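A common beginner's mistake is to predict each chain separately and then try to dock the pieces by hand. The better habit, illustrated here, is to supply every component at once so that their relative placement is modeled jointly.
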Amino acid sequence: MSEPLRLGIAGLGTVGVGVVRIIRTQAALLEARLGRKIEIAAVSARSKSKDRGVPLTGYGWEDDPVALATRDDVDVFVELMGGEDGPAKAATEAAIAAGKQVITANKAMLAVHGQTLAEAAEAKGVALKYEAAVAGGIPVIKTLMEGLAGNQITRVMGVMNGSCNYILTRMETSGKTYQDIFAEADGLGYLEADPQLDVGGIDAAHKLAIISSIAFGTRVDFDGIQLEGIERVSIEDITAAADMGYKIKLLGVTQMTGRGLEQRMQPCLVPETSPLGQLEGGTNMVVIEGDAVGQIVLRGAGAGEGPTASAVMSDVCDIAKGSAGPVFGQPAAGLATATAATSQRPAAYYLRTALVDKPGALAKIATVLGEAGVSINRMRQYEHEAPEAPVLIVTHKTTRAALDTALSAMEDTGVLAGAPVALRIEEV
Amino acid sequence: MSEPLRLGIAGLGTVGVGVVRIIRTQAALLEARLGRKIEIAAVSARSKSKDRGVPLTGYGWEDDPVALATRDDVDVFVELMGGEDGPAKAATEAAIAAGKQVITANKAMLAVHGQTLAEAAEAKGVALKYEAAVAGGIPVIKTLMEGLAGNQITRVMGVMNGSCNYILTRMETSGKTYQDIFAEADGLGYLEADPQLDVGGIDAAHKLAIISSIAFGTRVDFDGIQLEGIERVSIEDITAAADMGYKIKLLGVTQMTGRGLEQRMQPCLVPETSPLGQLEGGTNMVVIEGDAVGQIVLRGAGAGEGPTASAVMSDVCDIAKGSAGPVFGQPAAGLATATAATSQRPAAYYLRTALVDKPGALAKIATVLGEAGVSINRMRQYEHEAPEAPVLIVTHKTTRAALDTALSAMEDTGVLAGAPVALRIEEV
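With all components supplied together, the output reads:
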């Protein structure tokens, strides 16, 4: 039987409390699985007196997370405070400098400072683990870094923000507008204190940046992500997409191309019959494609006390067993700097527009599309009241450049009754 | 840079060739990820001269896998021959005795001899790893043993034999009988040399036995599995189930109850809208439920060269990094012997029968069901030609004992025109 592994937990919000709860209730099971005890040496949070529903007696207390990170009786510093800078980063750096192993759930910190933190941890020979930073309880990091270690990863896609998927799903089932459902989700406490992190796609993009680094052996490059939130997804588009057999998802896609690393986080259409299309509510899904394994789909809760604490405990258990490796799967100092590339590969697109209700309007649109080299796969004109005629088009595969030319030419026809909406249809 | 890790690969069928191919084509990537080279020291197979599409020059050759397993230049013995006894077991035992690490894809051997092999490996201090033994490329073992190590596992379910799922899916889409589609699958080479391993549910049950051991800390107990294959699933049931909103799957379910370990592998109905219900063709899916994480769904290819070799390589990479632990997640010597329990928890059931076409026949059936305490949720009688009236019933939750009483009483009514079919409806 080895020595107990002693944790210092900074941050006692939902996730921190979940970790404390698991360590208390599953002590015997953990000891049987690990051959050693997991102990909490000390904790740190904003308020010492707050009742969090778990007893903290017997644990040391630090007001300052940096002091917690460097305590002699702490083997592993568990950073669950969040925030890309500030106390989280200071305490993480202090823990690494003090030779502590580190576990964090902080996707923002890793997406922005991951490279320097990884280099520091590797130079010091300590682990920096972060299963909880991506997709909550789904073991995405472990699957990518270990389970598929024999693969050249070709693409990773995912719905990685449950709040956005909740909003999009609820819009579809209720027929209500984005604004209505945003207010509903906010009222239910489903959104971050700064909701822009969710609906602007930033939180999901943080996760995508981390995934890209592991998948492709490149430095984390959050700024290289082509980012678009869900704020402009209209109920009309959700309804029209459904009518054509698609769902709209805030989809992250990362893949290495000959021109560089393509990272996109944007609303896309996916077939309603695909696993991603069938994903409803707050659940997350990550689809990993490798040259040997083909396609692996992972699905589970992307947030919440239990799932996120489960992911933290996976890291705790790995450290307890002495399993470690480079932070992003390859030594950080040797990671290549990715060239950010925008997608130039052809894709099908969904176009929704409204035409003035005059003879020949539709023909004009079809003509300019054809002239731009954009071929129409399906087109629907709905029964309507004058003066506007709603039109839906699904194109064959085309480049974004050709599509932009077509969109511009459509404006010039004078038959549009509003600005067209164009959304990429992702092959999943 | 550490020393190279030297493999001895026994068995050069589909999976063995896939492993050789990955090691040859991904050498640079593996070295970057692992900080050491992966080398093939020697191989063993039935025929030395057969052209397998990958060059074997530069590798040592052994006719006898036992000789391969004990070679001085082999660090890891990779057993890809298959078969629960015979050369696979002899060579695995020899490798362990010689202090070699072992990787195997052999579910049959582990399901039957897993306990003794694990005890031997742990006594010798060597790894015995088997990611490829369960669900092909899906990292089920790693997810259960490491990714969800902080969870008390409550239930694991899965479709773990792609051939059976192919047959059931093809029956539904084609409307053809089991016999027709079995012949089709056999002709396409989708079935084992002994097809009973597939369609009898034995192969999938081997996998379930391994999963149970990890999930519940019990000794592998293949004999404790309640096992039923797909041979008796009729096209009539597939069609009728679809009409009621269900799919029929060969579903493995394992859970620990107060009375013991319930392990079932049998055709069940699942809602067509559930992830399991939506699984088509040869794909596998494993659903893991833990007290903290909730439900995690893993989906991917359950067989084939690339996916299975990918799983073997996951084990190779773990051993290269020095990550190891007890074979079934807890020291084998301390694993409890499971008490095999049959399910006594209530479930809904699907009943299909045909009645003689006489007034009052349906009432008689409804009456005996009620008298047995079996409550009807939905009932459908289809338009029919005399003299037989097909009837479908979905019951509310009831015990199997009550259902058996009802089935017996139904026979006694004299209004049945054939033996009723009863299938469990699984809550997924």
